[in-house]
Write a structure and sequence with these properties.
Structural class: alpha/beta
Strand order of the largest sheet: 1-6-2-5-4-3
CATH topology of the largest domain: Rossmann fold
CATH superfamily of the largest domain: P-loop containing nucleotide triphosphate hydrolases
Number of domains: 2
Number of strands: 6
CATH architecture of the largest domain: 3-Layer(aba) Sandwich
Length: 243
């Protein structure tokens, strides 16, 4: 074949859905150098698709800011005796559909850590979604009003990890509490939840407006979950321009 233009190759590549049979046949025909070139092409295509997927997942996660674990200040974090930073960074809790509760003082890095874990998941090809509690409740309420709650819940279920930030920061009415409970209940043993809160478990009844509902939520989260406690001065206050 002669006179082949670069655009011809691009169009053929876009139209092709390569099969093992075709790859085997053409690889067998090629010289060692040609096979090396073909391998490089396929590896580059795979890497490009993986990077595109990572970027799609990061956009879909709707993170408030793109954070990483690199350079994170762990000084405020207290881990359970049987769990530490390496296990957390490995995302093993997502593989096992386990939950995390990041509990403690305002401004000590809970949202930063939750966002960084979600971004790490996306970079590993794991679908994640970030919400503040109030935004999630509003989205669910709107879906219910528009008769598409089942579709909304199904879309949430396609994420392997859900971050529910600022639990207890704003009041939730009875309907909102029930919708939030449904998300948490549906995620049980199927997805990982990361919840950030400044309220101890004994006060979660004030969030859901019902001690029984709060107890049911806590029961599910504690069963396959871990509590990370945050103590210290607010990072924002410590570094504020206004003194």
């Amino acid at each position: 074949m002669s006179g082949v233009e670069v655009q011809d190759i691009i169009e053929a590549g876009r139209a092709a859905s390569l099969t093992g049979t075709v790859l085997e046949e053409w690889a067998a025909k090629g010289t060692p150098k040609q096979r090396e070139y073909l391998l490089g092409l396929l590896e580059a295509e795979h890497a490009s698709r993986q990077e595109s997927r990572r970027q799609r997942l990061l956009r879909a996660a709707r993170l408030p800011a793109l954070k990483t674990l690199e350079g994170y200040d762990w000084s405020a974090v207290r881990f359970p005796a049987d769990y530490g930073r390496e296990a957390l960074a490995s995302l093993d809790f997502i593989d096992n559909a386990q939950d995390l509760v990041l509990y403690g003082d305002v401004g000590t890095g809970k949202t930063h850590l939750a966002s960084a874990l979600a971004a790490t998941a996306c970079r590993q090809g794991i679908a994640a979604r970030f919400f503040t509690t109030s935004a999630l409740v509003m989205q669910l309420r709107r879906a219910k009003d528009e008769q598409r709650l089942d579709r909304e819940l199904a879309a949430l279920a396609r994420n392997k990890v859900l971050i529910i930030d600022e639990l207890g920061y704003l009041p939730i009415d009875t309907e909102g509490a029930r919708l939030l409970f449904q998300v948490i209940s549906d995620a049980y043993e199927k997805q990982s939840l990361i919840l950030t809160t400044n309220l101890e478990f004994s006060r979660w009844g004030t969030v859901f407006g019902d001690d029984n509902m709060a107890a049911a939520v806590i029961d599910r989260i504690v069963h396959h979950g871990r509590l990370l406690q945050f103590r210290g001065e607010s990072y924002r206050v410590k570094n504020a321009l206004m003194k």
